[in-house]
């Protein structure tokens, strides 16, 4: 877990709230197994079969009604796993003298629990239906665990199939995915392009009892969705987001995933919006990134890359680093809404400050890497401010956002105030006026302390005993002729 995680844990957890799931189906499949249909507080809808053994071992077999995915969670008190374990296990099916065996990839959720995702539905349920019992064999000499049916698994498969058939039209794919429901879409676009839904590989399903804390002590995990555009000109933005796993590879978002107890799952959705924007959908627990914004960032990056040795690399870096800051800004709006945090002053300024603070915590990245992100994010505001300052309207003065050029200076101020020695060149080069710079250390301290105090009561139990980590810096080298060209080593602000 990155240092953004462990830096926040020094504050105490102040309490957790709970919400009850809604059960729309229930059936005792046989003497051992029961089947239920659940829609929970995170808007996840699924049918699942469950059996508990007297020794505390259990297995849950889920079939999603929203995307059709089959996944399994298994707990065995006899296991002693590394919580970061991933590997291949063997699932052996026995019945009527016939034995079937299949290999499946698993990931540990804690030292007693594993999860298996994206299981082929037809083959898996065929094996289950023909079995009298099955055994799971993990590597590294972990004890095997077996689960039996009263007769055959046919009753379990029939009950899950019945649950799906009776409810999928109401809750499932015909009604659209949770991501589409959140943004009011009922059908996809983009021809052959499909919606792509992702989560962290170690994400545990939301508890079926309505708890907001998963069995590993984390909060409900983020989910990431890439909706196909209806206009083919945004296909490249969609494909770039999908191919780079845009949301899950953002260090701060990945670092915060599961470290807070939220009242519902927070979704990150990339989609075509009809206009250039990124925003938090209030009441829908969704951060929306529009392909139109990615497209505009690419064009601006291309214009700024003139004269560079590798303009394509700069454009990709410019787009990604600005998306990174923008997503953190919108995540700030999400936290204020979902945690019901007070926003003293203008909310837009507050979440700009949070985005900058989260970046400056740094995780396992060097100061120069983070300085580069802040340099390109502030450059974006400076570019927007050029056109804005030519003729300011009453609407721009009254807008909830500060002027773009003010946002540019605010980012520089917090960066300088966090480490005046590291970022002294911001002042010596004239980028940050000396008059403002004098107040920046106090301003940065107050902003950081205020945000951490607001977030502290929502930290999940998983982080209670974590300790801060350190990052190594790699510096040196020379800047190139274009002031935005960077060698990847030195402080991009100079000095």
The domain tally reads: 2
Please tally the helical runs, counting DSSP H or I stretches of 4 or more residues: 15
Terminal Cα span: 31 Å
* Low-confidence regions: 1-20, 392-401, 467-480
- Secondary-structure element series: HEEEEEEEEHEEHHEEHHEEEHHHHHHHHH
| Oligomer state of the chains in this structure | single chain
The shape, in one word, is: elongated
* Percent of residues in beta strands: 15-25%
Biggest sheet overview: 10 strands, antiparallel
Percent helix: 25-40%
Radius of gyration of CA atoms, rounded to a whole number = 25 Å
What features would you describe in this structure?
With 495 residues, the chain is α+β, with helices and mostly antiparallel strands. The chain has 2 domains: 299 residues, no CATH class; 154 residues, Immunoglobulin-like (Sandwich). The chain is built from 15 helices and 15 strands. It has a 10-stranded antiparallel β-sheet with strand order 1-2-3-4-5-8-7-6-9-10. A 5-stranded mixed β-sheet has the order 11-12-13-15-14. A hairpin with a 5-residue loop joins strand 2 and strand 3. Helix 9 crosses helix 15. The radius of gyration is 25 Å and the shape is elongated.
Describe this protein with a few key phrases.
single chain, 495 residues, alpha+beta, Immunoglobulin-like, 2 domains, five-stranded mixed β-sheet, 15 helices, 15 strands, 18% strand, elongated
Set out the fold topology.
Elements: H1 3-8, E1 22-28, E2 34-39, E3 45-52, E4 58-64, E5 70-75, E6 86-95, E7 98-108, E8 113-116, H2 121-129, E9 133-137, E10 145-148, H3 154-171, H4 178-183, E11 196-198, E12 223-226, H5 235-243, H6 251-256, E13 267-271, E14 278-281, E15 286-290, H7 291-304, H8 311-338, H9 347-361, H10 367-388, H11 394-398, H12 404-418, H13 425-428, H14 434-437, H15 440-455
Parallel strand pairs: 12-13, 13-15
Antiparallel strand pairs: 1-2, 2-3, 3-4, 4-5, 5-8, 6-7, 6-9, 7-8, 9-10, 11-12, 14-15
Helix pairs in contact: 2-3, 7-8, 8-9, 8-10, 9-12, 9-15, 10-12, 12-15
């Amino acid at each position: 877990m990155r240092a953004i995680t462990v830096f926040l844990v020094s504050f105490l957890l102040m309490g957790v709230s709970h919400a009850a799931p809604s059960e729309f189906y229930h059936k005792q499949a046989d003497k051992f197994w029961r089947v239920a249909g659940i829609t929970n507080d995170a808007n996840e809808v699924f049918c699942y079969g469950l059996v508990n053994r007297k020794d505390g071992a259990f297995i849950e077999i889920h079939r999603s009604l929203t995307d059709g995915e089959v996944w399994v969670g298994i707990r065995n008190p006899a296991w002693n796993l590394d919580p970061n374990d991933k590997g291949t296990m063997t699932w052996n099916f026995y019945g009527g003298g016939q034995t079937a065996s299949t290999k499946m990839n698993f990931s540990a959720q804690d030292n007693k629990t594993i999860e298996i995702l994206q299981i082929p539905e037809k083959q898996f349920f065929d094996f289950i239906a023909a079995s009298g019992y099955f055994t799971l064999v993990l590597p590294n000499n972990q004890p095997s665990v077996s689960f039996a049916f009263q007769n055959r698994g046919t009753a379990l498969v029939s009950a899950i199939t019945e649950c799906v058939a009776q409810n999928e039209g109401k809750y499932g794919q015909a009604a659209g995915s949770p991501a589409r429901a959140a943004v009011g879409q009922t059908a996809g676009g983009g021809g052959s392009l499909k919606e792509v839904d992702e989560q962290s590989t170690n994400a545990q399903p939301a508890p079926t009892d309505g708890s907001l804390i998963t069995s590993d002590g984390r909060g409900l995990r983020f989910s990431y969705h890439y909706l196909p555009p209806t206009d083919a000109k945004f296909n490249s933005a969609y494909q770039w987001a999908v191919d780079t796993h845009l949301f899950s590879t953002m260090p701060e978002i990945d670092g915060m995933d599961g470290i807070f107890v939220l009242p519902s799952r927070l979704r990150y959705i990339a989609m075509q919006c009809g206009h250039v924007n990124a925003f938090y959908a209030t009441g829908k627990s969704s951060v929306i990134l529009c392909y139109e914004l990615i497209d505009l960032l690419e064009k601006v990056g291309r214009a700024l890359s003139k004269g560079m040795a590798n303009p394509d690399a700069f454009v990709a870096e410019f787009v990604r680093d600005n998306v990174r800051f923008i997503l953190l800004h919108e995540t700030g709006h999400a936290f204020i809404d979902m945690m019901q945090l007070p926003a003293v002053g203008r909310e837009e300024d507050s979440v700009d400050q949070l985005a900058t603070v989260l970046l400056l915590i740094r995780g396992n990245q060097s100061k120069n890497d983070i300085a580069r992100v802040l340099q390109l994010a502030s450059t974006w505001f400076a570019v927007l401010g050029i056109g804005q300052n030519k003729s300011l309207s009453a609407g721009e003065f009254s807008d909830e956002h500060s002027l773009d050029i003010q946002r540019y200076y605010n980012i520089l101020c917090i960066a300088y105030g966090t480490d005046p020695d590291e970022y002294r060149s911001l002042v010596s080069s004239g980028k940050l006026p000396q008059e403002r710079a004098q107040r920046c250390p106090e301003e940065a301290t107050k902003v950081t302390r205020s945000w951490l105090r607001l977030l502290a009561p929502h930290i999940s139990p998983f982080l209670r005993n974590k300790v801060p980590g350190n990052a190594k810096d790699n510096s040196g080298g020379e800047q190139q002729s274009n002031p935005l060209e960077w060698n990847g080593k030195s402080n991009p602000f100079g000095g």
